[in-house]
Design goal:
The complex is a heterotrimer of chains A (261), B (394) and C (384). Chain A is built from six helices and 15 strands. Chain A has 261 residues and is an alpha/beta fold. Chain A has one domain: HUPs (Rossmann fold). Helix content of chain C is 53%, strand content 15%. The longest helix of chain C is centred in the middle third of the chain and has 37 residues. Classes of the chains: A alpha/beta (261), B alpha/beta (394), C alpha+beta (384). Chains in contact: A-B, A-C. β11 of chain A pairs antiparallel with β17 of chain B.
Chain lengths: 261, 394, 384
């Protein structure tokens, strides 16, 4: 089974707060981290390789420093990794990103399953997985919480919906996105760390993947960010004073007044 | 083309450094040093610079000027023949947008014996493209993708909206990819640039820390998904005549490589959180799984739904279906009571538009107080039982 | 403090640290409360290849040395020494095979241990603690193999391990030369376990009696030769004792960090406790002791790694010093943290309870003092 896992390096902004005076991100050395959902994707890929044999290839479209994340992926079980990096990719929206990743996967050529995390921490769109599937003309299943079986060229999974889960079967090759309920990512192993240290991780440019200039980067993007702003959170809550008894009395009074209860 | 930095103009004031959402700017030897690779030209640094030392040159494709695409469409999702609330909400918003553009509003709905179709016109739909076919209840997403693409290609709407539900977030991007057009997910704001007749889509990024406004100038349709409860359902004052157009669905034309085998329901709570008018949520401050009893008791006294921030769900204290937040549910009840929740950005992203927010926390600096309507700094183990008691005794 | 660790050792230390923080920390209190063996964590350690450290490369190991093992045990002990000792005792159980086993025995058992099979070492009996010569378990040679009879007491990993190295008497008449070392597998007929002991500390570590009633094992399970039992024992313990020093060191480190953390936050008399001179003095003392212990433990580990022929004295010194430091530092840490330190909701009291055993097992500190004195006398107190 040839498995491709797509990883993205994102700013670790979960640790960052807004400076209330300037209303900007307080950025004391934002670390770049692997998108947490992608860790689950990688772990699932490695588990499937352990179950069915084959190879796990980790790829990422990002700046040169994302190579560190790809090394970590090898230490956690990926067999090989490639970085897609080129100034021509700058300004990509999800349409252009999925086209770029799709081209890279076509270059990898032998693939049975592509696994992505359900969404990224920075973009939150969850769009690259499905868009990539359409570009490659293969089936797509989102929010996979369990891979039941891969047999006879088909994959059977459980995918989460609001009120439970569905069991779905699709023919391979296919793209799936996974949720964190699917597994607990392993820690790196010593042999993995050793392998990662000496691994050759090639950088593929737009030319290497034979990308069409019109479908990558800004040219390949359909959406444009015209404004970025920090949400105004200057808000004054009414703080209730006194001992718990007094606070509760005041609260119930206000809720009744506002006809909320 | 791209980011142009004028070193001469730069004074090293450092305003650009915290402005970059990607952390690409450092001040080195009293001048800004910008890592251009990884920059997506959002322009936040340019806006922060008082000295015009940064320029962004983008060739934003010219807005489409032709008249080929008309109409605002809303994909109305149904599940088990019940229309999801978000469908009505988007039609109400869609009516506003369509009126501004002076164009028609159409609902698109695929299902079988779907109830509540009349409400679609009551919310403002001029036309309803309806597939009413028993086969649709068994078909996978592939059928929805294929049929919607077919209808869009046939009728060429300029804008189409869908709910950012798990289904919406899965199938809508596939439609966008086939049509090679732009899709903006989880929009919290939709406006029209009347001059360019473009949809301006505002959405949160970085878990809500940063808001972005996005346009799709040259591709059509302009597609957006919107989370439930972001917009309000509004029935039109005057009755509205809407036409139902039945769409014939050719099953054999759909080649699907995906099959739904069966569905298993998780019915731990009778009341779907998104539909609750009052929600009481517990967070890490509860300390132990047993303490969720305090939340349940208060919720029972209020007839409320029970929610949770992420940490209790991660610890296994309460099932995921109760999680409110960026990777959980987005709710917008009349009253949201946050107990022992500090107010991480990811949680606030899921509930900050609630009408009235009450926060109970022993930390006066907890971020939740920044969005609360009423705050109680205190020991939740004292406050909550007292509150429950008072509500029960009237 | 610079300890000149190699890149590989730094990687090892940081991996062990990460496992301790991510996998051990969330469950240590529960494991202690329920006296539950950390099976899942042992699997995590195995998956990360940490059991391969003390196994030679030829047998699927990574061929690491004493210092490598100590670094891992220290980092695990910093968070929970019961987890650390379950891991370290497997090394203890493996050493007899590594140092004295035949090629066949090494091929059969070492790769299994490298992949995470738990091992244990069975010497102690009710009549033989510090006085190992008091053992009474016998191994009678027959045509079909050896028949073991007797009971081992207080064996770490007893019941959880699959592979046991057991010291038993093959010839009661020969005194110290009458003991031999054997490999016994779990589920061998005649080999059962007594109840799990209730201890004040390292409660997640499983301590059980090993009961042998006409337990027949193949003669190929004899390690090396008959009569080598105590020589094997001494060598095995010399090699594993630094691991216990590292365990004590880790406990002391964890306790000191916790105390510093607490005293920075706890406000009394209008200021954090750590601002008060009496507290500062105690904390400084703790820090000095921990660092001195670390320096000694690492130096001894390096000495062993340099393949010196004999290191009984060094091994003993590190263990005595580090364990005494652990006991002192944990007790002082509880004292500084006052009421909170005494409460089970706070991690310090467990560290204090855990520290005590390090002064007792793997050569009580009293016995080790004797051993050091013997060496001292031999070398007339001089160093080259």
């Amino acid at each position: 089974m040839n498995i491709v896992v797509c990883l993205k390096q994102v700013p670790g902004t979960t640790e960052v707060k807004i400076d209330p005076k300037t209303n900007t991100l307080i950025r004391q050395g934002i670390k770049a981290i692997v998108n947490p959902f992608d860790s689950y994707a990688l772990e699932e890929g490695v588990r499937l390789r352990e179950r069915y044999g084959g190879k796990v290839t980790a790829i990422s479209m990002g700046p040169p420093q994302a190579v560190g994340m790809l090394r970590d992926a090898i230490s956690a079980g990926a067999d090989e990794a490639m970085l897609l990096s080129d100034a021509a990719f700058a300004g990509s929206d999800t349409l252009a990103t999925s086209a770029t990743l799709g081209k890279a996967i076509e270059k990898i050529h032998n693939y049975d399953l592509i696994i992505c995390g359900r969404q990224t921490l920075d973009g939150d769109t969850g769009q690259v997985g499905p868009e990539m599937a359409e570009n490659l003309g293969i089936p797509f299943i989102a929010y996979v919480s369990k891979v039941e079986e891969i047999a006879n060229g088909k994959i059977r999974v459980q995918r989460m919906v609001e009120d439970g889960y569905e069991t779905i079967e699709a023919s391979l090759p296919a793209v799936i996105t996974v949720v964190k309920e699917i597994n607990i990512p392993r820690l790196p192993s010593l042999r993995g760390l050793s392998k990662a240290k000496s691994a050759q991780i090639p950088t593929w440019t737009a030319q290497d993947i034979g990308a069409n200039k019109e479908s990558i980067g800004q040219a390949g993007s359909a959406t444009w960010v015209v404004k970025v702003f920090y949400p105004q959170r200057i808000h004054h809550a009414e703080m209730l004073k006194g001992d718990p008894e007094a606070q509760v009395n005041a609260l119930v009074g206000k809720l009744r007044e506002g006809k909320l209860i | 083309m791209g980011l142009i930095f004028d070193k001469e103009k730069c004074t090293g004031c450092g305003s650009c450094e915290p402005a970059c959402p990607f952390g690409l700017i450092d001040i080195v030897e009293e001048k800004a040093s910008i890592k251009v690779e990884g920059c997506n030209l959002c322009g936040a640094c340019r806006d922060a610079c008082a000295f015009e030392a940064i320029r962004i040159e983008k060739e934003i494709a010219a807005a489409l000027s032709d008249d080929e695409y008309h109409g605002v469409w809303v994909f109305v999702e149904q599940r088990n023949s019940e229309i999801k609330g978000v469908g009505y909400e988007l039609l109400s918003k869609g009516r506003e947008v369509a009126d501004t553009l002076n164009t028609e509003l159409c609902a698109v709905c695929f299902g079988y014996n779907v109830k509540g179709i009349e409400q679609l016109t009551a919310c403002g739909a001029d036309k309803i493209y309806l597939i009413d076919d028993p086969d649709f209840t068994t078909l996978s997403e592939d059928a929805y993708v294929a049929e919607l693409v077919r209808l869009i290609k046939l009728h060429k709407p300029e804008i189409i909206l869908a709910g950012a539900t798990p289904f919406g977030r899965s199938f809508f991007p596939r439609v966008a990819a086939i049509l090679k057009t732009g899709l903006t997910a989880d929009c919290t704001g939709l406006d029209i640039d009347t001059e360019k007749k473009l949809l301006r889509q505002t959405r949160p990024t970085f878990g809500g820390n940063v808001m972005a406004t996005i346009i799709c100038p040259s591709k059509r349709p302009q597609m957006s998904t919107v989370r439930p409860r972001v917009f309000k359902k509004k029935l039109l004052q005057t009755p509205h005549a809407g036409k139902i157009i039945k769409v014939d669905f050719n099953k054999s034309a759909i080649s699907s490589k995906t099959k739904i085998l069966h569905f298993v329901a998780d019915l731990t709570e009778k009341l779907a959180l998104e539909d609750a008018d009052i929600i009481v949520s517990g967070g890490r401050g509860l300390g132990k799984p047993e303490n969720f009893k305090l939340i349940r008791d208060l919720a029972a006294a209020l007839g409320a739904g029970v929610g949770s921030s992420r940490p209790p769900v991660d610890e296994g204290w309460i099932p995921y279906s109760h999680q409110v937040g960026q990777t959980g549910k987005t709710v917008c009840p009349k009253l949201y009571i946050a107990v022992g929740i500090s107010g991480a950005v990811q949680h606030m992203a899921g509930m900050q538009t609630s009408d009235c927010i009450i926060a109970i926390n022993d930390d006066p600096d907890a971020p939740i107080f920044q969005i609360a309507t009423i705050g109680i700094v205190g020991d939740l183990f004292k406050v909550v039982p007292l509150l429950t008691e008072k509500l029960k005794s009237g | 403090m610079e300890y000149f660790l190699t890149e590989q050792q730094k990687t090892l230390k940081s991996l062990a640290h990460r496992i301790a923080e991510e996998r051990v920390l969330p469950v240590r209190a529960e494991l202690d409360e329920k006296e539950q063996f950390p099976t899942a964590i042992m699997k995590d350690l195995a998956d990360s290849d940490l059991f391969r450290i003390f196994i030679p490369e030829k047998y699927d190991g990574l061929g690491g040395g004493c210092l490598d093992l100590c670094l891992v045990v220290e980092e695990l002990s910093r968070v929970c020494s019961a987890v650390a000792v379950s891991y370290a005792a497997t090394a203890l159980g493996a050493y007899a095979i590594i140092l004295y086993g035949s090629e066949e025995q090494k091929q059969k058992y070492l790769p299994a241990i490298a992949s995470g099979k738990i091992a244990a070492f069975g010497l102690t009996e009710s009549t033989a603690g510090s006085d190992a010569s008091g053992i009474k378990t016998t191994a009678e040679k027959t045509a079909d193999g050896y028949i073991l009879n007797g009971t081992k007491q207080f064996i770490t990993n007893g019941g959880e391990a699959e592979i046991y190295t057991i010291i038993a008497l093959t010839d009661k008449t020969k005194g110290p030369r009458g003991a031999s070392a054997f490999i016994v597998e779990k589920d061998t007929p005649g080999f059962t376990f007594g109840k799990k002991e209730k201890k004040i500390g390292i409660r997640a570590s499983a301590t059980r009696e090993l009961i042998f009633r006409n337990c027949l094992i193949p003669s190929t399970n004899l390690i090396n030769k008959e009569g080598m039992g105590f020589i094997v024992t001494m060598k095995v313990l010399d090699n594993s004792r630094p691991g216990i020093s590292a365990q004590a060191l880790g406990i002391a480190q964890g306790a000191m960090e916790t105390a510093v953390d607490y005293t920075r936050q706890r406000i009394q008399f209008g200021q954090p406790l750590i601002s008060l001179p009496v507290v500062q003095y105690k904390l400084a003392d703790m820090a000095i002791q921990v660092e001195a212990a670390r320096a000694l433990v690492y130096a001894v580990a390096r000495t062993i790694d340099s393949h010196v022929k004999s290191f009984t004295e060094e091994s003993a010194m590190a263990k005595v010093f580090a364990s005494d430091v652990a006991m002192r530092v944990t007790t002082d840490a509880v004292q500084i943290c006052g009421g909170a330190g005494y409460m089970r909701d706070y991690p310090l009291e467990k560290m204090m309870r855990d520290a005590k055993i390090t002064q007792i097992y793997e050569g009580s500190n009293e016995v080790l003092h004797n051993a050091i004195a013997i060496e001292l006398r031999k070398r007339k107190g001089k160093r080259e």
